[in-house]
């Protein structure tokens, strides 16, 4: 998915200097951003208060939207560098196309994982016909320096490990939990899991003390370590936890995001991740001149133009503002 914000501003993120080394309860509110013709997303990362959680550097939550009489998601071809995208649905379906030739419909609780590496372009759209409701999240994972120039690829994993406990069904998206491992390719120590809680459930989820974590609420009423987290909001949890208490007041859906704090500082601008402003400028120029990113075939529409870079130089601000 693209960052469609036409006022995109470069930002330097990463580094361990602003990692919270102990458990915290920091509630992050979303910023509402239009996505295409008929979809609005709630952007949780980057946030006014925090830019990354482990290698997770971008989180959009959307829906549930009634798109029975709407085109639904319509994101034209656009570029990416230096990251992975994770498409995750609770309802509906998204048709993915990319410049490696991939064509795949992703459905609820199936993993669509795209590694941009040095350069890729893709589009996402609600297929025709499509389901009445659309509800999901789009997330980015920053690639470490050793892997950010790898060849682009798309992975589709319709079957993922599921952990069952009384009142809890946990689907593993990336990384490992309690001995189970996702088939998705990961380049840093990371974890992502979809948590379905039954009404009245009280559970304690095992965590890695060296990871930092956050929880995104997708639906329902739930308390995370005693804090009520409403759908479309995120609770940052810091590091130093070995378990996470959860209590569901209704049937609820959450996403657990975590990982080893990302050591490198990086620059995010629009849909590019690099290490210097010169890299970002080159990526933008390559996209606008039709080189390096390949072609997305089959999408009915023009590619997205890149926003203009600001004239002021970048000022490193670390993991938080």
From TrEMBL:
Family: Belongs to the pirin family.
SUPFAM superfamilies in the cross-refs: RmlC-like cupins
Domain (Pirin C-terminal): residue spans on this chain: 193-291
InterPro entries the UniProt entry points to: Pirin, Pirin_C_dom, Pirin_N_dom, RmlC-like_jellyroll, RmlC_Cupin_sf
Residue stretches making up the Pirin N-terminal domain: 41-141
Superkingdom field: Bacteria
Organism: Streptomyces caeni
Gene3D superfamilies: Jelly Rolls
Protein's name in the database: Pirin family protein
PANTHER family per the UniProt record, alphabetical: PIRIN, PIRIN-RELATED
């Amino acid at each position: 998915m693209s960052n469609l914000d036409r006022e995109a501003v470069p930002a330097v993120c990463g580094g361990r200097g602003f990692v919270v080394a102990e458990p915290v309860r920091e509630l992050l509110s979303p910023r509402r951003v239009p996505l295409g013709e008929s979809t609005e997303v709630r952007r949780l990362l980057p946030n006014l208060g925090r830019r990354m959680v482990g290698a997770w550097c971008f989180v959009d939550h959307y829906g549930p939207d009634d798109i029975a009489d709407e085109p639904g998601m319509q994101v034209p071809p656009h570029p990416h560098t230096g990251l992975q995208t994770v498409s995750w649905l609770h309802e509906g379906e998204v048709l993915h196309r990319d410049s490696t030739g991939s064509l795949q419909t992703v459905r609820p609780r199936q993993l669509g994982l795209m590694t941009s590496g040095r350069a890729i372009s893709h589009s996402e759209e609600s297929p025709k016909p499509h389901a009445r409701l659309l509800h999901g999240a789009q997330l980015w994972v920053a690639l470490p320096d050793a892997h950010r120039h790898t060849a682009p690829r798309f992975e589709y994993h319709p079957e993922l490990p599921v952990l069952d406990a009384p009142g809890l069904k946990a689907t593993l998206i990336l990384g490992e939990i309690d001995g189970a491992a996702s088939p998705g390719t990961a380049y840093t120590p990371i974890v992502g899991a979809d948590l379905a809680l039954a009404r009245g459930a009280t559970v304690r989820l095992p965590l890695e003390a060296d990871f930092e974590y956050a929880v995104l609420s997708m639906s329902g009423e739930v308390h995370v370590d005693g804090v009520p987290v409403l759908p479309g909001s995120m609770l940052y949890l810091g590091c130093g936890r070995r378990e996470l208490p959860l209590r569901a007041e209704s049937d609820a859906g959450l996403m657990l995001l975590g990982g080893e704090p990302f050591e490198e500082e990086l620059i995010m601008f629009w849909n590019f991740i690099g290490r210097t402003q010169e890299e970002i400028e080159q990526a933008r120029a390559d996209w606008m001149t039709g080189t390096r990113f390949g072609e997305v075939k089959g999408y009915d529409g023009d590619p997205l133009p890149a926003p203009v870079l600001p004239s002021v130089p970048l000022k490193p601000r670390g993991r938080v503002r």
